[in-house]
Amino acid sequence: MAFHRRRNHYHNRFRSILPVICTISGALLILFALLSFLAPTPIASNNPQHMNSLYARNGVVEDTIGESVLHIPKKGRTDRDIWSSRNSKYYYGCSNASIKFANSDAVTQPNRYLLIVTSGGLNQQRTGITDAVVAARILNATLVVPRLDQKSFWKDSSDFSEIFDVDWYISSLSKDVKIIKSLPKRGGKTWIPRSMRVPRKCSERCYQNRILPVLLKRHAIQLTKFDYRVANRLDTQLQKLRCRVNYHALKFTDSILQMGGKLVHRMRMKSKHFIALHLRFEPDMLAFSGCYYGGGDKERKELGAIRKRWKTLHVSNPDKERRHGKCPLTPREVGLMLRALGYSNDVHIYVASGEVYGGEETLAPLKALFPNFYTKETLASKEELEPFSSFSSRMAALDFIVCDESDVFVTNNNGNMARILAGRRRYFGHKPTIRPNAKKLYRLFLNQTTMSWEAFTSKMRTYQRGFMGEPKEVRPGRGEFHENPHTCICEDSEAKAKKDSGPRKYGKGYDAVGDDVLGEDEPELSDPGDDGYQNGPQEKDQFNGTGMDYDGITNEEPELEEILSD
């Protein structure tokens, strides 16, 4: 009986305090719910791009992230020449044909005509135009001047002669390949060629086995979507032919050259040296990359809606993409990289870009780091740009000229323009070309709040060795040939031997960015079609902000095999 009385006693006490426990629990749940609603997401609060600002104080730019402040000195590096490559004078472009390379008159067969239709934006089309000459030489065929892509997303109606000097193209290559402006009529009637597509990276044997039999039967064939349709590795003489086309035969029209020259001259009038930045930060490109930049739910919603354009695009892990170096640097990160490499805030910078996601708010940190900020629209009047502004490829050509003529070329991406210019600048004297070591820089930017500016710059210069456009940064045969034209770069061995035998100019502790060292951080050049960037929709043809630079895009869904091209 006593046991039952005690049990009833405790039961009654529990029943009496139960409402109090429920009230307290409910209040705690409501409090946690309010805190969860008001607090930022874990990703946004931890992301280096979020809650970030740059401002100047007493001549020093301060980069604030949360409570941490990174003090960035106004002056740049003075212990070395940051405007040239150290050993560039010992290397030069060499693409002349061997005496064993037969004249076109001797090898071109009658009744063999090759037509090609390029694909993509200006720089992707440039690869097709270059490789078309090589394909015609392999097939011993007469090449008809390539037809440019006029049906893709941006609908540029320009033909070959409105962008390139067609007469120079034909005459300068006359000893290599016979080129004509149009297909001759057959029996007084228009000749309709057989249309077909070549596999990507088609070798000499591939062309001889797959294309030549059809050409012998039909006498005229048209190869469509012609971009990266010739193998990277070819006979040495064919590789040199590639270089003759790309670096010598392809000249812009006089009107484009003159306007591009004016832009370069105006940059030179402002400063002895200038940097050109190819900035890829368009909404479409960011959406495809699957990367996250700290914009919260608004960013996820906007970019997520764009991603739906590609129905077969898999869901990606933003952190994984960034760790693997697949995310383009933000404008702020590019600015910090350049300042850490020694470029002071009085350096003049030309920016080639399209619609930047986030607009002026996204560009503000870069402009705070480099106030002397220019674009073709700020350097030229609307009247001057009017003949070009309605044509994305012509606008792209203007940016191409300025970037090519710049003292230092910088890119935050690995698109076609970045690759084409990297190869071109190697060929013409190894002019400094800075490409981010994205894998290493990811960790550096993530941890920048834990270090001083001096420590940050030291690590930046270490990580960027091998990514500065110096000679021999990349092993021969690595990457796509237009990016690494190793066959067409020769070394002045005698001059270099004299230099190597002389006294060392720099001591053991010299911190040189871009020494001739092939280490574990050699740039990972990728072949189009093999990496995550190239297997998707094309990058924006950013030069007039009118749309994506898609290869073969219809009005419906962009193709997944091409992204991030120009």
Automatic annotation (TrEMBL):
Residues 494-566 are annotated as: Disordered. Keywords: Carbohydrate metabolism, Fucose metabolism, Glycosyltransferase, Membrane, Transferase, Transmembrane, Transmembrane helix. GO terms for molecular function: glycosyltransferase activity. GO terms for biological process: fucose metabolic process. InterPro entries: FucosylTrfase_pln, GDP-Fuc_O-FucTrfase. The chain crosses the membrane at residues 20-39. Residues 513-530, 554-566 have a biased composition (Acidic residues). The keyword Transit peptide does not apply. It holds the Pfam family O-FucT. Residues 494-503 have a biased composition (Basic and acidic residues). Belongs to the glycosyltransferase GT106 family. PANTHER family: O-FUCOSYLTRANSFERASE 16. This is O-fucosyltransferase family protein. It comes from Salix viminalis (Common osier). The lineage of its organism: Eukaryota, Viridiplantae, Streptophyta, Embryophyta, Tracheophyta.
